[in-house]
Structures are given as C-alpha cells and as structure tokens.
Amino acid sequence: MDFDKDTTAAPAKQFRRTRDGRMIAGVCAGTGRYFDIDPNIVRLALAVFSLFGGSGLALYAIAWLLLPEEGAETSVGEEMFKKASANPGVQDTVQKAKDALAKATR
To answer: Which tens digits make up the pLDDT trace of 1-35?
Structure first.
C-alpha cells in the first residue's frame, strides 16, 4: 500500500510582526493578518484604547516586545532577556538584591 502524502499543505499560521504594511513595528499589520482583519481596524482600536486610559500604547509596546518579527526565531524581549542574563553586572545586581532580601526577612 502506497499512500501519497499531500505536501502542498499550508504552513501553520503564526502570530508574528510583519514587514509588509507596517507603519511602526508591524504589530497591527501582523495582528490583522493573523486574525484576517484589516490592520486599520487594529490601529483604530489601539488609538481608542490610547485615548481612554493609555492602555493602547502599553498593549502595543508589550506586543512589540513579545511578538517575533517575520523570519526571526526570537522576539525583541527574549533577546534582551538573554543579553541581560549573560551580563555579569546584571548577575551581580540580582545577587545583591537576593542577599538584601534574605537579610531583611531574617
């Protein structure tokens, strides 16, 4: 028995920042592509959230940090975290904070 596999299947849908149609960092264009909606609707929603409480700016910044760009394996936030954790100065500061917290809780 020989079964032919369908090798033309569409790749899995991934939530990524896009390079096409971006205005700033590609968050709205990537969100629009992922949910199959017009990116301008996402931009309008973020503008409304920004006007009423400023949460739109925070949401955009968080998405920029957490969503990887098309073709990238890691996000900006993940790269920053890796660089910071490898920095001896950061490691020393974290250890000092742990020591101070342990001393304060005695």
So the answer is: 555 555 566 667 788 888 787 788 888 998 888 89
**Binning pLDDT at 50, 70 and 90, where does residue 89 land?**
confident
Q: Are 34 and 13 in contact (CB under 8 A)?
A: yes
> Contact 43/55 with Cβ under 8 angstroms?
no
Phi-psi region of 26 (alpha: psi -120 to 50; beta: other; left: phi over 0): left
Write out the two tokens for 11: 């790749």
Q: Residue 30 burial by CB count (10 A; 0-12/13-18/19+): exposed, middle or buried?
A: buried
Q: Which two tokens stand for residue 99?
A: 């020591």
Whether residue 46 contacts residue 60, with contact meaning beta carbons closer than 8 Å, is answered with: yes
Q: What is the pTM of this model?
A: 0.64
